[in-house]
Write the structure tokens for this entry.
Amino acid sequence: MRKGRLCISNSRGAATVEFALLVPVWLLLFFGMLDYAWYLTHVMVAENAVAAGARAGVTVKYWLAPDDDDYKDPVEIARDAVRHAFWLDTDLNPALIDVRFKDGSNQPAEEDGQRQYLEVKLVDYEYPPLTGYLPDRMIPRKISTIALMTLP
């Protein structure tokens, strides 16, 4: 009978020990979720920015002659639209944005009966991690995305 009372009366520090054991695990999960949410935010913003650039590139009047007053280069319009829509990084390096027509050129091909495609890529964008303690094999540090749209 006496032993039972001693065990009950000596449990004053049990909550502190349990707290000390569980806090590191809880912090690991919490900061892991924060880092992963930050990564997913960058992925979604990058995909939306590339899609906005492709939409902007296919809506310009690419069929006009380059010396015409209303001519706008679809490649430059798409690149500027990606940089403008990527609101998480206002200093996005233009070298990371690759805009070309599907045949590999920078100008649409002459009418040959086939559809023309504008391809907009964001290649190897390295986003700044929020906490940075998760390794690269858990969360990638570089983001690449692509959008492909047909010209009218």
